[in-house]
Specification:
The strands form three sheets. A two-stranded antiparallel ribbon has the order 1-2. Strands 3-6 form a two-stranded antiparallel ribbon. Strand 1 and strand 2 form a beta hairpin. With 324 residues, the chain is mostly helical. The N and C termini lie far apart (86 Å). Helices cover 52% and strands 6% of the residues.
């Protein structure tokens, strides 16, 4: 009996050792398989850096190693920040037509539309410093260039008004510094800041300046978004026309008078307060006191302007976009 028990213990020990060996072997095989799968199926590519590049018609000195590396950093950052970059491509279809039209009318290079992209992602956002809207104006600068900013109205959130103000500002910066590249840099750090650095360092070009990290990266970020959005497939983005956000159809009506109940105004015009604020993000209140008795033009959704199949009718285009 005792001998049988010993034999049973030995056999059990052998079985356990065998199972441990099999488990270890399986685990090792699993790790090897996992490593092979990663090697075969997961790839991260370095972006191609162009040898020739222009910004607003001005040649970028791609012969300088630090220019190439500065651009490379922003290309990698934005190429692999997929969610943000994908949304930029989607939103561009809605907002670029208006921005491009105004840039052309104001005689500002079309490349400046990418400045708007890096400033706000084509959204009405507020920065920690208080910059607001599509073009991220500070209150004082926005007012200087003609934007109404009160407790009730903030035209920094009006795409057309703020784009025209941005054009006026950029043209003033271009006149001051002589180049669109320097104008873009000054848009970020302020004209006084750039003027001081150019003078202190005895330079004339943005690319020759030692700047704070944000401004040092600023123009390269614009260039990176320009390359990715002009050639999305070259950077791994496959977006069909029907994936982008269409322009929203609207009718234009006048808003005037004092102490206007905007909820009732929306209902009277066949829409909702939600849609009134969505189509007119520059309105910041539900009751407009309007002490100056001004008249504003507001966008009201067309009769079926909130229905997806209506606003996208004729735009279900499966063609992959080649440039934004």
């Amino acid at each position: 009996m005792k001998k049988l028990s010993i034999i049973a213990i030995i056999l059990a020990s052998v079985a356990l050792a065998g199972e441990a060996f099999i488990f270890a072997t399986r685990k090792e095989d699993s790790e090897e398989l996992h490593a092979r799968v990663i090697k075969a199926d997961y790839h991260v590519y370095a972006p191609t850096i162009p040898d020739t590049l222009y910004f607003c018609g001005e040649r970028v000195p791609m012969n300088l190693w630090y220019v190439r590396e500065g651009l490379d950093r922003e290309l990698v950052s934005n190429m692999y920040y997929q969610s943000s970059t994908l949304f930029n491509i989607k939103r561009a279809a809605r907002y670029f037509p208006t921005i491009e039209r105004i840039l052309k009318e104001e005689k500002v290079p079309e490349d400046m539309k990418y400045l708007c992209v890096i400033e706000s992602g084509l959204q009405c956002v507020t920065s920690p410093a208080g910059a607001q809207g599509y073009w991220q104006f500070m209150k004082s600068t926005g007012q200087k260039y003609g934007l109404e900013i009160t407790d009730e109205i903030d035209m920094r959130n009006n795409l057309e008004a703020s784009t025209r103000a941005a054009c006026r500002y950029l043209k003033a910066l271009k006149a001051q510094f002589g180049g669109w590249t320097e104008a873009a840099a000054a848009y970020n750090c302020g004209e006084n800041g750039l003027e001081k650095r150019l003078g202190n360092q005895r330079q004339k070009s943005y690319y020759e300046l030692y700047l704070n990290k944000e401004t040092q990266r600023y123009v390269y970020r614009i260039l990176a978004l320009k390359l990715i959005m002009q050639h999305p497939q070259d950077y791994g983005y496959t977006v069909r026309r029907c994936d982008t956000y269409p322009e929203l159809p609207y009718t234009e009506v006048e808003l005037s008078g004092k102490d206007v109940d905007l909820v009732q105004f929306a209902v009277d015009n066949g829409t909702t307060y939600k849609m009134l604020r969505t189509y007119n993000p520059w309105i910041t209140t539900d009751k407009l006191k309007n002490k100056a008795d001004k008249t504003y033009k507001v966008h009201i959704p067309t009769k079926k302007g909130t229905e997806y199949n209506t606003i996208t009718r004729g735009k279900h285009d499966p063609t992959v976009i080649e440039s934004i």
